[in-house]
Amino acid sequence: MHVIFGSSGVVGSAVLTELHRKGLPARGVYRSRRPPHHAGEVARVDLETGDGLDASLAGAKAVFLATGDMIDQVAAELRVVEAARRAGARRIVKLSIMSAESEAFFYARIHRAIERGVEASGLPYTLLRPGGFMQNFIHYYGHAIRTEGVLRLPCHDFEENVIDARDIARVAAECLSSDRFEGEALTLCGPAPLSYSAMVAEISARTGRNVTFASISAEAFRASMLPYAVSQEHVDGISAMLRFHQEGRGTKTSDAVFDVTGARPRSFQDFAREHASSWLP
């Protein structure tokens, strides 16, 4: 059984789809939103308390570990690692973040702490370190693009190599069902870096609208995001992460998606063409 934590999230749900396509059994673990129909089984778990955790891992062969933002994400994910070890799981694939090894910003420090726990667990593992998701342009930036025709971020216009979450899922499904990449940390990104102005220009071309990029202060970004965030530290962590990549300290290119799956990652141009209706008023 392949047990997928974060199964109702953008990556976890795509992992379920990939495992279904491969004909592999999967159990979708969730807290509040049930995963999509591709989960043959589902299990509800509270990662803050561990309630339901051991039952969710019964018969686990491979575990995909992903969670959303939490007050103590490190403790929550390490709870899963320990429970997976107790359950006799043979493999764990951890969804991390690009440049986690740097520990240079809030989210990198969180994920690197969890990575260390995975490495020390004795379980065979693969670490996935993707860059920003293309889906962020729908789920997080989409409202402002639809209603105001603008993308506002607390950074200057710089190039980022965003990746489609479905390509992360293709890599994850391969790593869950094979030992080819055991012990590796894979940096995942799209086919080429693009500036934010180039990405909104692509959205403009696909929608027939004038969509622009606007650089705003960290304070303005905090004020706009705080009502929806877990904490101020999480919001400021996004600003710090963007500054890190704006300074050119992150990875710009990687062939890992192709190396693992044998297929090139989707381009932002193709993503914008497919999802153009998401940005229409």
Automatic annotation (TrEMBL):
Q: Which residues form a coiled coil?
A: none
- Describe the location of the NmrA-like domain by residue ranges: 3-243
Q: Where is the signal peptide?
A: none
Top-level taxon of origin: Bacteria
Please identify the protein, giving its name as recorded. Answer: NmrA-like domain-containing protein
Q: Which organism is it from?
A: Sorangium cellulosum So0157-2
